[in-house]
Specification:
By secondary structure, the protein is α+β, with helices and mostly antiparallel strands. The protein has nine helices and nine strands.
Length: 280
């Protein structure tokens, strides 16, 4: 075989060398994309910050701190995207693959480690803590409400007790009333009422016994019957009044405070009867 043929046979190995091994970051990106997930999806499901996921995919491995922690993070990432965790670890640089004589890292421990470096994991302790705080707040509000209710009841009771004392205040003694003064005041009042009645209505003073009938505009009888000698009557009502007076010449009349001549209204001199059909 000629030297040219040998060169031709060796050409593929020179032009197309063996597939270059992927870095850890490249391998993780391919595994994630094959699963149809974004870096944000991995961040949410692994409870790690997005910047840490992006640093891992960019092969920035110094942020992990230690080889053990880095391997734990890589395994967890691989599980999230459905890849083989051990194969993912084999893509780490040699210095991060050195075995350390420690107990195998359990999944729960991995979650705790990842949580300490990235975003906080959802922990039942957090939920329990919130429940305890909520219970304390509710108990505090309940205690305040009970105390406030009792204070209000006591205040109401005290008010009910003191109110009778306020009602039973002893008033100063009223000044002594002079019966004579009261009688005089009453007489003045009666006189004023009588004067007002005389001014407003028909006042009749009988010198002898006289028969009288007085009706108002509606026909209501205001005064009727025989009036004794020496008596006096005052009548008022809806005008006009209809008046009949016997022995009219012996009766003095006053209408609205002014003297009224009944003699001019006498219709029968033999019977001495005065008749007024419409007194206004």
């Amino acid at each position: 075989m000629s030297q040219q043929d040998n060169l031709h046979l060796n050409a593929p190995s020179q032009v197309h060398p063996a597939v270059t091994a992927l870095t850890l970051g490249q391998w993780l990106v391919q595994a994630r994309q094959a699963k149809g997930m974004s870096a944000q999806d991995v961040s949410s499901r692994s409870n790690r910050a997005l910047r840490q996921i992006e640093a891992l995919e960019a092969d920035n491995l110094n942020t992990a701190g230690s080889a053990n922690l880095l391997r734990a993070i890589v395994r967890h990432y691989a599980k999230v995207v459905g890849a083989d965790p051990e194969e993912a670890v084999r893509h780490l640089p040699a210095e991060y693959q050195t075995a350390v004589a420690t107990a195998p890292v359990r999944a729960s421990r991995v979650s705790e480690v990842v949580s300490s470096q990235g975003a906080p994991l959802k922990s039942p302790w957090i939920a329990k803590t919130w429940l305890v705080l909520l219970a304390l707040i509710v108990m505090g509000l309940l205690a305040y409400w009970v105390l406030f209710s009792r204070l209000t009841q006591k205040a109401d009771g005290a008010q009910k007790i003191t109110e009778p004392n306020q009602v039973q205040v002893v008033a100063p003694p009223a000044p002594a009333v002079d019966p004579a003064a009261v009688a005089a005041a009453q007489a003045v009042t009666d006189a004023a009422v009588a004067a007002n009645a005389v001014t407003d209505g028909l006042n009749l003073k009988f010198k002898v016994a006289s028969w009288v009938e007085i009706k108002d505009a509606k026909g209501t009888v205001l005064l009727s019957g025989t009036q004794e000698a020496g008596t006096e009557q005052t009548v008022s009502g809806e005008l006009p009044l209809k008046v009949k007076v016997g022995n009219a010449s012996q009766v003095d009349a006053t209408w609205k405070g002014q003297p009224y001549d009944l003699k001019a209204a006498i219709v029968s001199k033999s019977k001495d009867v005065a008749k007024i059909d419409a007194l206004n």
